[in-house]
Structures
1.
Amino acid sequence: MKKVLSIALALLLVLGLTAVAKPASADAEEITLWTYPIGNWGNEETVKALTDAFTAETGIKVKVEYLTYADGDDKVNTALTAKKGPDLLMEGPERLVSNWGANGYMVNIADLFDDQDKAEINAAALAACFADDATAYEYPLCMTAHCMAVNLNALKEAGAEQYVNAETHTWTTEQFFAAVNALAAKYGLVGGIYCSGQGGDQGTRALVNNLYGGTFTNAEHTAYTWDDPKNIQALKALYDLEGIEYDPSINGGEEIANFYNGIFKMAFCWNIAQQLNPNSAGTGAGKTANGDDILFMAFPSEDGNANLQGGIWGFGIVNNGDDAKIAAAKKFIQYMADSEHTYDAVRASNFFAARTAVAGNALDVWSDNEIMAEYTKLMPFLGDYYQVTKGWAPARTAWWNMLQQVGASDGSEAAIGSAVSTYCGQANDGAK
Amino acid sequence: MSPELRRRETIAGYLFLLPSLIFFIGFVVVPMVMCVVTSFFDANMDLNTPDKFIWFNNYIELWKDPVFLKALKNTFIIVVVSVPFTCIFSLWVASAIYKMREGLLSFFRIVFYLPVVTGSVAVTVVWKWMYNNYYGIFNYVLKNTGIISKNINWLGNPQYALWCIILILLTTSVGQPIVLYVSALSNVDNSLVEASEVDGANNLQVFWRIKWPQIMPTTLYILIITTINSFQCFALIQLLTSGGPNYATETVMYYIYYSAFKLYRFGYGNAMGVILAIFIGILSAIQFRLAREK
């Protein structure tokens, strides 16, 4: 009796351990979506309203997990390599296409793009979602141009208002330096070249590239070219600029917090989502914590015509080998990004639609919003979407490591040039 | 006991062990073997290219990689500073408080143990605020007392960053050793202490000749646990500095994570893991040997 009881108990415990294993679903009653915080696509209440509407129409439930930019990549990488990934991922082409798609984890969804879709979707967004003519790993939903921001009250108090064009939201490199000098004379600290990690690195890249017209990659997106002498000139100019510090103790999010709280007078990590809800604090659009006005600006360039970094976001399907789930995920994408519901999905993102129309019907998402309408002035400055260059993930880390080394250097052109050369070389090693 | 009964009891024993054994094999043994095996491959995230067996290339590359060497150096600095300090400080505190009345003793135990039971993220957030370059309390106090004239970027300056990490590590490391030492010192045979005092031994002699040998097993445990914890310092680095500035706080554990999850070089990361395990094993063995001789 004791033996039987022992065996039964042991088997019960073993079965208990293995009970978590679940067979793959034969029909796709539920799919999982992992989303990065893309505007309010990181807000559970907003997303639930969208997914509930999808479930009501299709009968397919959507289980959503919310990622952060701090550790989202690690979570996704771990899940994908363990073959435990979600059915859908929401992010940009630099991850969905150039990383997970190129490495074989995503489903080719080129069949979702018919000729009308191709005509209606922004050409740059469309190109970024395709790995080649016949392979697409992302269906774009929304896009924006990243920019920088200035504390307008501080600018006025420093007598530097004349250096910005508040109508066009543009300025030249010379005007930018003059504004920083004026702000530094008044306040000391103006802004920080944040480089503790990759969060918000598009801001520092755009600042450096635009100041003297440098480039980050070649036009073919096959090599990293940030060892361009114009970038070295920009890095040195920023090093020498009073009021701007290379700060390896903060990242983009912390820079935004410092700007919002009035410590910085400029932020280089900005976009329309921040303008609508600075620091995600819910204290009013276009205002800092103490009520100062925030003026969004294009990055300064020699002629005032900046090349802004684009942000494109959409959906990709993870190849989990379950055809039913892939079909359900495709339905979800079409519902959110290629139907009359796209209006709501785009509004939830706080960015602009990646297409001008859906099935021939014009898609007018933001005409009722003054700030969004004003922000569209920056969209013509949208530059090359170079984030699809091979080896993008290691290149980003090389970029902020380089900024750290530049900041820790003696500021000589030779030292900065050496740091730039080393890390650009590392990035190119990853692009091979 | 008959052989048949012994066999049955043995089988029953193993069956009871089975659930834990499954966990141990699944989450310890198998990953360890996989780690060693993967370290010989050029393993990465690319599903389109099969992993290539590259013999000892990952291990050879490690010793030519300046970032790994820097990480190794930083790791050893952390170990060399924090292990002796943690042991000495916790022994000192435990010696001072273990004879106190129960209420006071519990208070001190709570004070020192609090950082251990507090989540590392919460601890890190508070320290990050204190170290903040712009509004941190350290800069505020030091500036207002005239010790410094300009804010110090504690975590952003390669000169200070590693020491800031070590300071946090110390505050979170001393709690458990203090509790263990308090318990060990309370268990020291008092008749031996009294006898030595009657024979004229002074406090130092009582400690060194009577107490120290009796708390040696606790010391050995503390040394090994602190060494392993120091070698595996990761969360603080990840949450505070990401290995920066300019690799000043890069540790082997963080570089393993960085290589595997940022550069997607799983084979290389695993090779580092094997090297780290070897170092920890060697140091633990030395500590065992020295303590046994003592």
2.
Amino acid sequence: MIKLTDINKTYPGAVPLHVLKGINLHVKKGELVSIMGASGSGKSTLLNILGILDNYDSGEYLLDGTLIKDLSENRAAEYRNRMIGFVFQSFNLINYKNAVENVALPLFYQGVSRRKRNLLAMEQLEKMGLADRSHHLPGELSGGQKQRVAIARAMITNPSIILADEPTGALDSTTSRDVMELFRQLNRQEGKTIVIVTHDPGVGKQCDRIIRISDGLIIPDNSIITSN
Amino acid sequence: MKIPFFDIENWKEIGSTLARNKTRTFLTAFGIFWGVFMLACLMGGARGAEDLLRRNFEGFATNSAILFPGNTTMPYKGHAKGRRWQADHTDIERLRLLLPELQTVTSQSSQWNISFRNGRHSFSGQVWGVEEAFTEVMLPHIESGRFINEADVKLQRKVAVVGKKVANELFPGESSPVRKTILVNGISYTIIGIAYQTSEIQMNDRIDNVVIIPVSTFQKSFNRGDKVDLIMMVGRRSADFSELESKIRRILYSRHQVDPNDKSAMWFLNISDMFSKVDTLFLAISFLALFIGLSTLVAGIIGIGNIMWVIVKERTQEFGIRRAIGAKPIDVTVQILSEGVTLTAIAGMAGISLACMALGITAMLTTNETSVPRFQMTLWQALLIIGIFILLGTLAGLIPAIKAMRIKPIEALNDK
């Protein structure tokens, strides 16, 4: 599903910063993996490249068989919309839109009619157990509920991969467990490929595989933790 | 690609965004509303003010001139200077004959401090002697009865048109004294009409305060021979009194043996010249209104641009989120511009509507029996104002919109 070959990324500046120094990474379809690393290790940059939010300098990134390289802003936006579902640490819901509208928003950019996208959004919220909260604004929801709304939004376009950036970073431990359980469920039941960037070892343990990144390189650690 | 303007989804999205951010929407809209309101009031008000001013000259022929014979200031053909000369009916006939550009030539003569009586009631004022053509120079309002006519003059009838105020003083409590008798300087006249004026132009006095009788009767009563005090002329459409003045002087001077160079021997009042000066004044007022209006407009537009800029800054994260989940740069630009245009259109409409109401009320308050001042805008003016506002509102929103377009999703999202 994800195939990175020798990805290099340097941030230009007075002192150019070589952040990614040849990343090779392979995530298979239906895998639930976590990317772990200290801050400054390059994991955020890697996530941005995986999410087509940033470009890389050299190497090759194949997402679901599509070469993601030197895309125009428009093409990148289209790919993000159709192939990637984002889940962020701070939820990043639009605060003046209610839950259903937030979930439906990606479909707006696909030109789906309001009635149809709200219908689909309701379905997603029902799956997340939030049907009764569908007309609440984000400000009226708890952290766990907000994150589930965000996950519903990530799922609504039926993307190839879900990218989660510290999805439990702003949640307490009980809620974190619930959210992780939700990810595992999506992974098991719907076969979603999910990549979670985290520095919480507890989160990492619940994934099929931990990819450790340090100083711009993947640490060749083949310890695959199988769940169950 | 869908054209956003024709995409109902786009409008629904904009509608819900504006509706959910009421304070922001209101503040932005108010700036536009106020700009349009001021501009519309100024543009509509300028015409109304012009009408109010013009009301002062109502009923007076604009392309006209009046000449007042006076004393000579130069000796000529054996006559000493300082000689008083008077115009007469032969002058009027000659002017009519020699200058076909003149539509009307007529006269007015007056006698001051004459007593008017009706039994115990008395009043004093001017008596005017005029022809029926007087009305072509200055149209009085006739409350009842009629004005002097040709037969009155020809037959030297002892009839009088009485000013409204004179009538009220002499016939208190009577609805109409027409057909009654009035004593003017001890001679009785039959009242044929009651006249008044609403304009502010006076020939010696307001019509309300005088008694008007046929010129022939006047000349006989006051021993004027066939002399008249002043000659009034109305030109045809093409007549230009600046050019006619010298011809008129020559016609009168030669007959009365006045030095052709003696400008001061006759005062020539060019009324059309005065009216054109007033026209210039109105033009200046319109320009002033336009200038102030445009300044308000520019201030309003800068205000919109400023608010849009702040809004874009405030919504950086939102646009970042939108970009991350699939909004193209153009989608964000279109969103901001559409929000701006929608706001501008609605607020502009409201501004125009309220301005029209304000103008309508002003018009109602200033309407009198003779005229309704045009405190109003033409449809084209209204459309022009809205058009300019939408165009400039779009331009003002363009810079913030382009800034928003350049927002990189990662920058916006990292800004936690």
